[in-house]
Amino acid sequence: MNLPSRLLALLVAVLPGVAAAAAVAIVDVTVLPMDSNRSLPHQTVLVEGDRIVQVGPVAEVKVPADARRISGKGRFLMPGLAEMHGHNPALGSTPEFVAQVYFLYVANGVTTVRSMLGYAGQIELRDQVRKGGMVGPTLYLAGPSFSGNGAAAVLTPQAAIDRVRAQQAEGWDLLKVHPGLKVEVYDAMAKTAKEVGIEFSGHVPAAVGLVHAIKAGQRTIDHLDGYIEHLKAQDAPVDAAKLKEIVAFTKETGTWVVPTMALWEAIIGSADADHVTNLPELKYLPKRMVDNWRTSYVKKVTAPNFNATQARQIAANRKVLLKALADADTRIMFGTDAPQIFSVPGFSIHRELKAMAEVGMSNYAILRSATKAVGDYYAGVDKFGTVAVGQRADLLLLEGDPLQSLDNVAKRAGVMVRGSWIAEEEIQRRLAQIAADSAK
Ligand SMILES: [Zn+2]
Predict the structure, then answer these.
(1) Distance from the CA of 20 to the center of ligand 1, in angstroms?
(2) According to the model, what pLDDT value does residue 20 have?
(3) Tens digits of per-residue pLDDT, 384-400?
(4) Distances from the Cα of 358 to the Cαs of 97, 311, 373, in angstroms?
(5) Which CATH superfamily is 81-377 part of?
(6) Which residues surround ligand 1, an ion (CB under 5 A)?
(7) Where are the domains of the chain?
(8) What superfamily does domain 3-79+386-439 belong to in CATH?
């Protein structure tokens, strides 16, 4: 069997309870539509297939007799969350591991993942998930990297043109920009991407620089890449005037950023080693993978040439930068780069929520970056990211109000992904299995 059909067989075997029902009603719930900072008490939300078909006061929504009813009493219903810089498991992963990673996302309410590095087989997985053949977030896929480094480097403008056309024809959703591209190669990629109608997003190659990338139309700047370099703020506080200027430029060009604040602390070495190497959720990934992360992180931050002062300065400056971007109401989307060093798929969102709150963003702005903002970004592709009629039925049912406390995002009653309901007991049962498998 090929990979997708092996996965299907596996998932049907382990998850008998998640097939899409005819209709599901979440009854008497407080809805956080996320179209603005408001909540609507005593609502019923009716779902048919993969769509929300009715939202209204309990007394006004007629629930079909054969619909499955889920109690929303005392609970809060928000749109499912998006991981806008996530990944599929590495090439060569077993189908079992792919299924586990997809489940870890969904288990934490992550119902959309923009997967930021393509390899053969992912398009089939994406389509299989979409057709309802397996449990997983809706995937949007970047193709194989446009990088200036490594065996598959793109070294000439013609190579870039050919690769853009090939990836567009193969059906990738976007192009992934990586470091090391020469300016003329980047420009050829950008020009061809516009011609064929595919976006390019990701890193900012050093030779290109932030302003050039934004002017060329790069749609998302991930990890806030290029900003600290542009501000020359590696070793000193951010210059206020320069910051104001680049924030205004980001805003006026409509450029999106995907900050990945928690992840970046682990990349640059400013994260507390004791904390990140002992995160409880690390038990959901294979022990060997986690041990490698632990060893390499400790090695990095204890190396004689490691510049801890600089790492802390950069981390502090990134917070100032994100606060300024948020205050200017620029387009911010939520991402954690899972599964990547210490970012456990799905679970990593809780660290990122905290990291964004530490910057001083409001709970509403943070949650919007993972819901409504993502829906806006994908307008024209599909409808999701708010609780409203016609939206994809990706929903997160919580025991507490996440607008009051972001900790409530972890207090789930269940998750709905494309209309399929997974109750918290089912989530916990499967998580326990994954933890047991990962310890082997
Ligand atoms: Zn990444």
Answers:
(1) 31
(2) 47
(3) 999 999 999 999 999 99
(4) 33, 17, 20
(5) Metal-dependent hydrolases (3.20.20.140)
(6) 116, 337
(7) 3-79+386-439, 81-377
(8) Urease, subunit C, domain 1 (2.30.40.10)
